[in-house]
Amino acid sequence: MRHRIAVIGGGPAGLTFARVLHRHDHPVTVLERDPAPDARPPGGTLDLHEGMGQLALGKAGLLAEFQALSRPEGQAMRILDVDGTVLRDWQPRPDDRANPEIDRGQLRDLLLGPLDVQWGRAVTEVVPGTRDGVLVRFEDGRQETFDLVVGADGAWSRVRPAVSSATPHYTGVTSVETSLDDVDTRHPDLARLIGDGSTAVYGVNRSVTAQRNSGGHVKVYAKFRAPLDWQTNPDQADVEAMRSSLLALFDGWADPVLDLLRHGTAFVHRPLYVLPVSHTWAHVPGVTLLGDAAHLMPPLGVGANLAMLEGAELAESVAAAPGPGDLDEAVRAFEEQMWVRAGRWAEITAAGLERLVSPDPTEALALFEEVQPS
Ligand SMILES: Cc1cc2nc3c(=O)[nH]c(=O)nc-3n(C[C@H](O)[C@H](O)[C@H](O)COP(=O)(O)OP(=O)(O)OC[C@H]3O[C@@H](n4cnc5c(N)ncnc54)[C@H](O)[C@@H]3O)c2cc1C
Predict the structure, then answer these.
(1) Cα(165) to centroid(ligand 1), Å
(2) Is 262 exposed, middle or buried (0-12, 13-18, 19+ CB in 10 A)?
(3) How much distance in Å is there from the Cα of 61 to the middle of ligand 1?
(4) Residue 373 domain-assigned (yes or no)
(5) Residue nearest atom 7 in ligand 1 by C-alpha distance
(6) How confident is the model at residue 229, as a pLDDT?
(7) Could you tell me if the CB of 181 is within 6 A of ligand 1?
(8) CA distance 68 to 62
(9) Can you list the residues of the chain whose pLDDT is less than 70?
(10) Boundaries of domain holding 197
(11) Ligand 1 centroid, distance to 271 Cα (angstroms)
């Protein structure tokens, strides 16, 4: 039976869900708020784990294409202390495919493939239990009904209120993101500092991480504990004011580390929000959530992986469900499985954030030792 299925959001969760359904020849309507795929910068690189993001790509039939695009050398990880001393310098083996990196834009294009996404369709509300199914309302006043609506619309989901009253709360940690272009030619010293993967520096209650993307592009993240209204510079467009605030915050750190901030182009201020650990809800027929909409966690390299795996698993279950009752049972079983796994990761990442932005910087190093393969 062909169920009327809509997925709200064309991020890693929504696109993986749609792509796996497509592989099973099941129609799906993909509704995305952005007016076009390249309407905003896609963000930094993602490492896709073998048993998670890569497993999901396998279910979508895209693993070989991913392997051709991804950067196994991007798994390299260097840790410095605030005076620039290298504390750890981990390099992957040449055949290590455990967590290769891929640019978000490349991943999005890979997943998009033949999908017919409806761009510029911002959802405002989802109403379950109407006579004709689940009603979806759009910003432009239009509305449509479906048998199943999957909320893959991220942290500030408009689908979530249909199943849960939970809202994200601030972790107390803020991130400011900047980037460097053409690093190998314009900043060769920084290119050497960063290497092929990431370099992280941990101080008291703050850190700076630089992460190589493809094409000589580098993303730099400064993380620190701050009140939610931390804005020494209310106008983020004032790049120089933002830069001086950050340089003041990291005063005394080694020059090469500060150069990452000195040479950064624009700055984006992102307070880190999370949903409550082990967020669940009473099952609502016809509506479910995936990815950040279901379990927003600190950004510790898991969110996109979980989102994709969930998308692939839900799509497989839904495609195999013959009738309407089976569809609901499939969704209910999926939710139970998702909650257990996501709850575990939410605990791990919450504890991880406490250790990475900690009064005791040796905690970050200890965490690295615990998770890094030898
Ligand atoms: C700095 C940073 C680094 C990270 N690094 C990693 C990493 O290395 N590895 C990893 O696994 N995870 C990482 N994450 C986490 C990861 O980015 C998220 O967990 C992941 O993007 C979640 O995917 P998603 O599809 O659920 O949501 P999103 O990626 O947020 O996608 C949601 C989509 O829904 C659309 N949308 C939103 N509202 C509406 C609406 N009302 N109507 C229609 N469409 C809508 C949005 O435009 C968007 O396209 C990182 C996060 C951050 C902030």
Answers:
(1) 20
(2) middle
(3) 22
(4) no
(5) 301
(6) 84
(7) no
(8) 10
(9) 1, 231-237, 373-374
(10) 169-274
(11) 15
